[in-house]
Amino acid sequence: MRSRGWLPVAVALIVLAASLVPGGGGGGTIGPVRVDKLLHVVGYAVLAGTSLYALRAPTRRTALVVFVLVTAFGGVVELLQAPVPGRAMSLLDLVADGVGAALGIAGWWLLAATVRAGESQAA
């Protein structure tokens, strides 16, 4: 498959499905951080990173748009959780989504810069 666009769609569907499982949510903590917040950060970091990967050559502006859209997606997911048994809307979850999106974008930019530097040294 030549298009990379399917990757963020697949990640978004996985995040959505995992978020709407009745009674779900990671229990427990790792140090001072709850596992469910870590899952939010990781899921939304992967979603943001794969979104930038799908764009092939994103700019700072598109990275900002990805941040806004990924975080907004998290907000929509929080709203969809309201009627699901054992789930609830949470502002802290939305904050974790935004942190994850920012980390995914930063990670993508660092990886892309490292790859570009390696390519220029090889040339």
Architecture overview:
It is a single chain. By secondary structure, the chain is mainly α. Helices cover about 70% and strands about 5% of the residues. The protein contains 4 helices and 2 strands. It has helices at about 5-20, 35-55, 60-80, 90-120; strands at about 30, 35. It has a two-stranded antiparallel ribbon with strand order 1-2. A hairpin with a 2-residue loop joins strand 1 and strand 2 (about 35). The radius of gyration is 16 Å and the shape is elongated. The model has no long low-confidence stretch (mean pLDDT about 90).
Quick tags:
two-stranded antiparallel sheet; 123 residues; mainly alpha; 4 helices
Number of strands: 2
**Helix count?**
4
Order of helices and strands: HEEHHH
Q: Give the termini distance in whole angstroms.
A: 29 Å
Q: What is the mean predicted local confidence, pLDDT? A: 90
Determine the fraction of residues in helical runs and give it as a percent range.
over 70%
The best one-word shape is elongated
